[in-house]
Amino acid sequence: MKKEIEKKRLKKELKSLFKSMDYISDNYLNKEGINDKELEVFANIYQQLGMAWEFLGLQCRHWDGYKKTRDRKEVCKICGKVGDVDETDILLPVKGHKKIGRKKTPDSKKTFRTKKEAEILYDSIDFHGARLKVDVHNSYKSKLFKKELDINMAAERIVQLKESGIECSIDQHTINIRIGPSKEKGSKVDYGNFAFELRKKDLKHFPVLFKFDDNFKFSGLTILR
Ligand SMILES: [Zn+2]
Q1: How does 135-172 read in b/e, with b if 16+ C-beta sit within 10 Å?
Q2: pLDDT digits (tens, 9 = 90+) for 158-189
Q3: 82 C-alpha vs ligand 1 centroid, how far in Å?
Q4: What is the pTM of this model?
Q5: How far is the CA of 152 from the centre of ligand 1 (A)?
Q6: What is the dihedral of CA 201, 205, 209, 214, to 10 degrees?
Q7: 100 CA distance to ligand 1 middle (Å)
Q8: Ligand 1: distance of its center to the CA of 188 in Å?
């Protein structure tokens, strides 16, 4: 229901906007004998109406699908925007849940020549002090060890969240949490062990609670700060 009201309102606003744009175009921009100064004023108005169109178009979810134009472009039946074109601006509600983009995962079995060609999405947002980054790419060839060794980087979807100096990154195979500043290049790498490999007295240094059920099925962990 909310969607219908929203759609109806937007349709109405766009209709009246298109009417204004046509009016300016027909009566001034294409008028014979209009002087340059006047023409500039109306060209500006037309531009500003174009901005309003951009703004309203961002609110359109293209509910009614697309239609073909004479120059064979697919345009939205409501807002007139060309389909399949990345929107450069993102309009979000101030209150309530915000949604940007759709979940993307690797979409090819191919190994691409470069990282750029393999890229599907690389985007980040600073959200009220927390930083979120999403990196989705197909497999690609990368040079390692002073460009002497070719290795295949696996197709991945990596989501990383940074908050108060803590970094959590999730990919298809691991969930990594880093506490404190990231290691400088060349410094000694951290050790990594399963809990059962450590001695009890060493384990006591780690403020970690393992969560599990009656069958010892692991269901998560809590790290105390
Ligand atoms: Zn639309």
Answers
A1: bbbbbbeeeeeeeeeeeebebbbbebebeeeebebeee
A2: 999 999 999 999 999 999 999 988 778 888 88
A3: 8
A4: 0.64
A5: 41
A6: -10
A7: 16
A8: 54
